[in-house]
From TrEMBL:
Belongs to the iron/ascorbate-dependent oxidoreductase family. GO terms for molecular function: dioxygenase activity. Its cofactor is Fe(2+). The keyword Repeat does not apply. Its EC number is 1.13.12.19, 1.14.20.7. It comes from Stutzerimonas tarimensis. Monomer. This is 2-oxoglutarate-dependent ethylene/succinate-forming enzyme. Pfam families: 2OG-FeII_Oxy, DIOX_N. The keyword rRNA-binding does not apply. Residues 178-277 form the Fe2OG dioxygenase domain. Keywords: Dioxygenase, Ethylene biosynthesis, Iron, Metal-binding, Oxidoreductase. Pathway: Alkene biosynthesis; ethylene biosynthesis via 2-oxoglutarate. It catalyses: 2-oxoglutarate + O2 + 2 H(+) = ethene + 3 CO2 + H2O; L-arginine + 2-oxoglutarate + O2 = guanidine + L-glutamate 5-semialdehyde + succinate + CO2.
Length: 350
């Protein structure tokens, strides 16, 4: 069913693919040329594959192995690192811990990791030292992947700035110790499950953009015509998608794209790294992106607070801390599903 809701995205039938190798070039004109291609795909779809990213396949292989080993353990063992013990949102997320606006529960479990900031004086609700499970090699291999992909995110932050016609370091100077989370997600497969539940319901990501590595089919992306488009696994490529905060930073030139994971037909893992700015960064459109006399279409956000507010409205352990008064939502916290076009589409095309 077509929808009458306006979307800036095209009616793409497959995700665009951009080779970003030239973003790493020493020659500014080469970087600009790659950034223009990145910008076109981002404006049109907000969701794309990238190649030429320079991430060593051996890092990916070790990430996959460690994750499979971790989730194969008994629930009791995994619960030793339950995220509800953490004061900076790191650890094991059992199935059912996250509950979304529609009161749906995804069919998945996860392990959440962040920037691994060791100084307790700098700790924030979404930033601090990680919980690491007692599993040989896990910390080393997962950390190595995190650091490499966080490095890639820095290059992409530069690329997005150039694509918007801004100075190259406009975003990057706010990316020093970001509360950027890596999730190791496991979607178990149970052919006999009595309830037909999706892997993950329709949503936009909260941060600036996400560098996603899926390992099996199931990801679907909402196009500008309100249709769910299949995003198959492309070997050697990452999937990049725009999140809420880049929508604000770009004054709506780049729009957070809704996506979901349909009910899995085989066991599935996926690895999103959600790329944020530093905790206290004011997320507002750069003045250069406003036409004369135009005011921002978006209320400014504080990066870490938006992240925390959204997370606290979905995770059971945080909801309990809010109810008990131990934690408070930041002032002007946005409700869930405040960005992109998904909620409206869901009504017409479930
Ligand atoms: O599993 C996937 O492919 C996507 C996961 C996702 O969208 C998320 O965790 O925000
Ligand atoms: Fe997502």
């Amino acid at each position: 069913m077509a929808s009458s809701i306006a979307s800036p995205h095209t009616a793409f039938k497959r995700l665009p693919l951009v080779d970003i190798a030239r973003l790493f070039s020493d020659a500014p004109e080469q970087r600009l040329s790659a950034a223009e291609k990145l910008g076109k795909a981002t404006r049109e779809a907000g969701f794309l594959y990238i190649t030429g990213h320079g991430i060593d396949p051996a890092l990916i292989e070790r990430l996959r192995q460690r994750t499979a080993e971790y989730f194969a353990q008994p629930l009791q063992t995994k619960m030793r690192d339950y995220i509800g013990q953490s004061s900076n949102h790191s650890g094991y997320v059992p199935e059912g811990e996250e509950e979304f606006a529609s009161a749906t529960v995804d069919h998945k479990e996860a392990y959440d990791l962040g920037f691994d900031l060791q100084d307790p004086a700098l700790q924030r609700p979404m930033l601090g030292a990680n919980q690491w499970p007692d599993l040989p090699g896990f910390k080393e291999d997962i950390k190595a992947y995190y650091e490499a992909v966080l490095g890639l995110s820095r290059t992409l932050f530069q690329g997005f700035a150039l694509a918007l016609g801004l100075p190259e370091d406009s975003f990057l100077r706010h990316v020093n110790q970001p509360p950027s989370q890596l999730r190791l997600i496991h979607y178990p497969y149970n052919p006999d499950a009595p309830v037909d539940r999706p892997g993950i319901g329709a949503h936009t990501d909260y941060e600036c953009f996400t560098i996603l590595l899926p390992t099996a089919p199931g990801l679907e992306v909402l196009n500008g015509a309100g249709e769910w488009i299949d995003a198959p696994v492309m070997e050697g490529a990452f999937v990049i998608n725009i999140g809420d905060m880049m929508e604000v930073l770009s004054n709506g030139s780049f729009v957070a794209t809704s996506h979901r994971v349909r009910k899995v037909a085989e066991e599935r893992y996926s690895f999103p790294l959600f790329c944020a700015c530093d905790y206290d960064t004011l997320i507002a459109p750069a003045p250069a992106l406003l036409r004369e006399g135009e005011t921002s279409r978006y209320e400014p956000l504080i990066c870490g607070e938006h992240l925390f507010a959204q997370t606290a409205q979905t995770f059971g352990y945080l909801k309990r801390r809010l109810e008990s008064g131990e934690l408070k939502l930041p002032e002007n916290a946005k409700g869930l599903s405040s960005f992109g076009y998904k909620a409206k589409y869901d009504e017409v095309q479930p």
